[in-house]
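Deviation from plan, reported transparently: zinc ion complex.
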Amino acid sequence: MRAALAALALLAVPAFASEDIPDQYPQSVLYSKPVEFIPHVFTAIGATAPPTYENAGHNNNLSFIVTGDGVVVVNSGASYLLAKALHDEIKAVTEQPVKLVINENGQGHAMLGNNYWIAQGVPVLAHVDAAEEFADSAGQSMAALKSYARENAEGTDPMGPTETFTDKHEITMGDFRIEVLHLGPSHSPGDTQVWLPDQGLMIAGDIAFHERMPPIFEGTCTSCWIETWEGPLTALSPTYIIPGHGHPTNLAQVARYTHDYLVYLRGMIGAHLDAGGDLAGAYYVDQSPYAHLDTFEELATKNAGTVFAEMEFE
Ligand SMILES: [Zn+2]
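Because the crystal trials were delayed, the predicted structure below was used instead.
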């Protein structure tokens, strides 16, 4: 009996992320099968790793809401085949048609699957700045997809959204009120949050990271990201968060690994600047409190250099 319980306990181990965990859904091009996080809201959690042949570019969260009168999808994924695979999963849980796709930002893994949905006659919505970002970078994103995903890039033809919004786009569909928001500058142009006020759930996109290090891009305003977090994001006080990357969780947890990381890194770079430090030294400020996060190796020094370049002229 005790042995049986111990075996059960082992099976019940929570799903920790690790970029070294191999594909969790070998039957599908998706990295993992969608889970229902709260009633009628599903997410297929991507690998907390860079895009690779093995994860087929499913390294961010692809979510959907079964509203009772149609399905709303958040992110078309990194390719036509990922969008199609997500659609297959949707069809396995509901007969309701997909009525809208929302892109969380202008990155390849948010938008490169758009042409699948557009071919199904489904409208695709994104923030106007995300659409512009994708128009500028789609060629590069497509080249990257072809090189890492190989045959899984098949069918992908970069297409932006069919509709754009600027501040806010409100939808009532079935049993859900859905607010598509741009709370302010954070990770990349036109970052979009999908807010379900009645459920207290935010499908946050890349304003919020969990279990892996956030990337800081050239041109990202980290002080603005912190302001957006402490202001409008915190004001909504979400109970549940589906972050852009990593398992669904709550605000306190994504705050530790996103907001608190940005504050920490700016503190370290600020002290380095005050001590007369240069760029070469900035790469090596101590980030050991975050060394357990996935993508630390790929991003930590790069992030430090980017924040140095940003703060040097503040
Ligand atoms: Zn992302």
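Residues 15-251 form a domain with the Metallo-beta-lactamase; Chain A fold (CATH 3.60.15.10). We consider this an acceptable substitute for the interim report.
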